[in-house]
Amino acid sequence: MPTYIWEATTRAGEFRSGTVDAKNEGVVQERLRNQGLNITKLKRKPLELHIPSIGTGVSLRDKVVFTRTFSTMIDAGLPIVQSIDMLATQSESLHFRRILASVKADVETGKSLSESMAAHPKVFDQLFCALVSAGEAGGILDIIFRRLATYMEKAASLRRQVMRALIYPTAILSVGIVVMIVMMTKVLPVFEKMFKDLGAGSLPALTRMVLALSHGIADNIIVVLLAMAVFIVGFIAASRTTKGRYVIDTITLKMPIVGPVIRKIAVARFTRTLGTLLNSGVPILDALEIVAKTSGNLVVSRAIMYARGKIEEGSDIASPLLETGIFPPMVVQMIGVGEQSGAMDEMLQKIADFYEEEVDVAVGAMTALLGPLMVVGLGGAVGTMLIAMYLPIFEVAGNIK
Asked: Whose CB among 40, 129, 244, 324 lies 3.0–4.6 Å from 303's, allowing a Cys bridge?
């Protein structure tokens, strides 16, 4: 069924626009006139090639722009359906436009906004929908969307810090692997041929070891590449299972240098998310369940669910969090103070602000430390191979002399 793009004005002179699926233009005109609209522009939407998107198909920037603008529209008194329709037509993402059109259609049928958004969990996750539901119940939808936009902006900033920290070490590691493979398969065989031409006798032990390694890689390069591919695929497959992901997350938290940074990121995300939920009126047990599902780390998620179970039995929130050993004692003490004073949501936001700054400092320190360590490791490996190749040359030169 073709899609038509229309623009119209109401009897009061207000501008309206949108899209509608219909058999022909006559059906669209009749439908719009029945709604009391005076059509000013109507055209058939050109066919577009739909390519399935990878992941959600909607960037975090698209969601932040939508959330911030939607909050402003609701605050200005615009109806929800009209606001969604306007934002759908303005979105740069084709996939997001389709999702917003679906949300608008569901709202028009009588569903709540949170229910309509929950039908698209890859774009609007459980945290998003829970906050929208709380906003609908409390009549503070504009405030909720403003908080959501702030939350997503801070989450995006935290993600950028981590990605920025990983780019340099990853680049060095990739270059190092390529350099080692090239030297093993192309450079060392040239040196070996030269030794034979010079009539070098028994080679030093280090040279023999390096040449044996070179032969092993060069003669079995396909096997080596297949083994690397199998390892990567196996790692990805394991990370998608509950047991495998738990093992990986446990190892990550215990790794030197990287582990403390991951732990601080987990604390910042936990406190920011929980503080936002509690500040929006979500009950503590529901909030903890949502935080656990959106933590991004299975070890942290299980720790939060353990604390939730204890709270459900009548415990305070601080004691079970301390028992897990995941959260620093200072953080737990501050949460306890906030719980006793009745301002836990404010305390959580302050902790999140502090730890986000700590993450910034820790990421900078990790980058400054990992970079030189990887350079030294790469330089040591290349230097070892060079020494192994030059040792026989020195011996041959000495014999000639």
From this structure: 324
Burial label for 332, CB within 10 Å (0-12, 13-18, 19+), is buried
Laid out side by side, the sheet with 3-9 consists of: 15-21, 3-9, 38-44
- Six token digits for residue 314: 């009548």
* Count of Cβ atoms closer than 10 Å to residue 310 Cβ: 17
Burial grade of 206 (CB within 10 A; 0-12, 13-18, 19 or more):
middle
Kindly tell me if the per-residue pLDDT of 52 is higher than 60.
no
User: Distance between CA atoms of 114 and 133, rounded to whole angstroms?
Assistant: 5
Which pTM was predicted?
A: 0.63
The average pLDDT across 204-214 equals: 82
Distance (Å, rounded) from C-alpha 361 to C-alpha 165? Answer: 11
CA neighbor of 21 nearest in space, from 37, 34, 3 = 3
For 127-176, write each residue's pLDDT tens digit: 888 888 888 877 888 888 888 888 888 777 777 777 777 777 778 778 88
Q: If one looks up domain 60-151 in CATH, what number appears? A: 1.20.81.30
Q: Supply the pLDDT for residue 61.
A: 82
Domain spans of the chain, in order of start: 3-44, 60-151, 156-401
Residues 6+ apart with CB under 8 A from 314: none
pLDDT of 55 above 80: no
Write the DSSP string, 286-314: HHHHHHHHTSS-HHHHHHHHHHHHHHHTT
Nearest Cα residue to 298 out of 241, 349, 235: 241
Q: Considering the domain 156-401, what is its CATH architecture?
A: Up-down Bundle (1.20)
Residue 39 parent element (H or E): strand 38-44
Q: Is 219 exposed, middle or buried (0-12, 13-18, 19+ CB in 10 A)?
A: exposed
> Distance (Å, rounded) from C-alpha 275 to C-alpha 172?
38
pLDDT of residue 200: 59
What is the DSSP code (8-state) at residue 152? H
